[in-house]
Automatic annotation (TrEMBL):
Residues 20-144 form the Bulb-type lectin domain. It is a single-pass type I membrane protein. GO terms for cellular component: plasma membrane. It is an enzyme of class 2 (transferase). GO terms for molecular function: ATP binding; carbohydrate binding; protein serine/threonine kinase activity. This is non-specific serine/threonine protein kinase. Its EC number is 2.7.11.1. Residues 1-18 form the signal peptide. It is found in: Cell membrane. It comes from Noccaea caerulescens. Keywords: ATP-binding, Cell membrane, Disulfide bond, Glycoprotein, Kinase, Lectin, Membrane, Nucleotide-binding, Phosphoprotein, Receptor, Serine/threonine-protein kinase, Signal, Transferase, Transmembrane, Transmembrane helix. The keyword Transferase applies. It catalyses: L-seryl-[protein] + ATP = O-phospho-L-seryl-[protein] + ADP + H(+); L-threonyl-[protein] + ATP = O-phospho-L-threonyl-[protein] + ADP + H(+). PROSITE patterns: BULB_LECTIN (PS50927).
């Protein structure tokens, strides 16, 4: 249903932190454990939805930071591959691959790139989760994988909506089936491949909604104008995408359900 299609725009300031924000190669993040971003804004953890025993690995807002009882997920690694009826774990294996495990068996391989150097998984205060190959001096040699390249139904500052011209990689949001059913739904929000300065919602491949063309820093659709100041458009020989940012100290907005 369209009522379940939404995305959220967030920018939050942080607090002091006392927990780890990274998983080192060979370590396991077990069910009941969590990574916490440096300023205590986001957590990576296993959780389940009400009336379901399926376990999901996802990034959620730290409810202590939000002063809220309910944890709100912004990204789910295995939305279409839940762990049925039991605990799971996450590991960076000896080859640098990022895997979700059920028991000793691999359930989902998030990154299959093999490396020769040390590999670290880090959760940032932006809500991005990065798998990094490290140099001996502790600097980042390259980013192997990041959650911002695989958005689910929530848009955070720094995420892209668009596509890579050379690889065909698309960055788009896909609705969930319901509030407690995070599997991919029928609505897709992203950039139109024909008119690259247009945002659209597609329902089963058919046009459902369009933002109006982006021209001189604004969308032509008046109903979308409340959000245009958040967005900027990038177009070059490699990529075409929209991204948004906010300059106020705290902001939380929802597009209408």
């Amino acid at each position: 249903h369209l009522s379940h299609f939404f995305f959220t725009l967030y920018l939050l300031l942080g607090q002091s932190c006392c927990e780890t924000d990274r998983l080192l190669q060979g370590q396991y993040l077990k069910d009941g454990q969590e990574l916490v971003s440096a300023f205590n804004i986001f957590k990576l953890k296993f959780f389940n939805f009400k009336n379901s025993s399926n376990r999901y690995l996802g990034i959620v807002y730290n409810n202590l930071y939000l002063n809220d009882i309910q944890e709100r997920d912004v990204w789910i690694a295995n939305r279409n591959n839940p762990i049925p009826g039991g605990p799971g774990s996450l590991t960076v294996d000896s080859l640098g691959r990022l895997k979700i495990l059920r028991g000793a068996s691999s359930l989902l391989e998030l990154s299959s790139t093999e490396t020769t150097g040390n590999t670290t998984l880090k959760l940032f205060d932006s809500g991005n989760l990065q798998l990094q190959e490290m140099d001996p001096d502790g600097s980042v040699r390259r980013v192997l994988w990041q959650s911002f390249d695989y958005p689910t139904d929530t848009l955070l500052p720094g995420m892209k909506l668009g596509f890579n011209v050379k690889t065909g990689k698309r960055w788009e949001l896909r609705s969930r089936l319901g509030d407690t059913l995070p599997a991919s739904g029928s609505f897709v929000f992203g950039m139109d491949a024909t008119f690259t300065n247009l945002l659209t919602i597609l329902w089963r491949g058919n046009m459902y909604w369009a933002s109006g063309l982006w021209f001189k820093g604004r969308f032509s659709l008046e109903a979308f104008s409340n959000y245009e100041s958040l967005f900027y458009f990038v177009s070059n020989e490699s990529e075409h995408y929209f991204m948004f940012s906010v300059d106020r100290p705290m902001m939380k907005q929802h597009f209408p359900r």
